[in-house]
Amino acid sequence: MAQSDAYERIAKAALNQYGVVQKELRFLGHSGNVTFYVEAPEEKFLLRIHQPFSGLQDDIWLRPDVIESELLWLVALRHQTNIIVQEPVQNLEGRWVTQVLADDTQDVFYCSLLRWIDGYVSDTHRTPQQAYQLGSLTAQLHRHSSQWKLPQNFVRPIFDENRLRAALSAFYPAVSYGLISPEHYRMLTQATQKIESMMKTLGQAQDVWGLIHADLHDSNYLFHNEEIRPIDFARCGFGYYLYDIAESIQYLLPQVRFSFFEGYQTIRQLPERYLEIVEGFFIMAIIYNYSFHLNNPKEHEWISNDVQHIAKRHLHKYLEGESFLLESQLVPTE
């Protein structure tokens, strides 16, 4: 793993391939990608080095064809909708993904450059109006996805039963670590089986399944004046539109979640059993998040505490067939 100074060298080498002369290059963070803020004489950018935090993702996210496919959706959203997104920039060779070799190890790093968009991440609980706006934005993304003709060789990960089972298996070491009890893992396993059965009944028709953001949590959209702007499409892939909804609303207070659904239905209709289905996907999103964070020791205390809350507030009710989405008082901490 390269250190921060090595990442800066890689960032500068990548910018040379775009012909961008930076006035300022500032490290922003390292999670799914290494990110830098870039200020040029007349424009600002976000530079991404597609190198995840150790152990947090499988290799598919690092493939250049997978990265390029994400960028192609952003280009389409930028030119075919009114949604404000970070528009990708082609390098001097007309490519969306830029390859850089590390000086010392000759390891290959893939980079992408996006135009910067203004806005801020809110650290307060969402109001009913903001939840309503978020629902409308999510529906706009789904409407575009359901109508967009995919480019040739478009490839993104799939959020299906196989990925859910893989996430549950990847989370099993939490038992041996002593982070969660065998009983709670058993409950997660039972929930997974119930979710799998539900998914088989849904099918994958165009109105229920398509390209989704898959990570539109409260740090992945910006507020700008009265507008919400989605960012960080790095985990986008193919999945159920109702799963995409579940991923977002788990970070909303229960009392504003219905406002999300109201906003959504101003753009797209929801199926009759949407609440029951979203509750299953709500649990699925939680399992994904646990498996994603397990290899980061800094998250272990949160995981241990959160599983206990989830088991008490959500899992028990879900396994008993009781609704919980609009009643629970749990506030997610991640």
TrEMBL record:
Residues 32-251 form the Aminoglycoside phosphotransferase domain. PANTHER family: AMINOGLYCOSIDE PHOSPHOTRANSFERASE DOMAIN-CONTAINING PROTEIN (PTHR21064:SF6), AMINOGLYCOSIDE PHOSPHOTRANSFERASE DOMAIN-CONTAINING PROTEIN-RELATED (PTHR21064). Belongs to the pseudomonas-type ThrB family. This is Aminoglycoside phosphotransferase domain-containing protein. InterPro entries: Aminoglycoside_PTrfase, Kinase-like_dom_sf, Pseudomonas-type_ThrB.
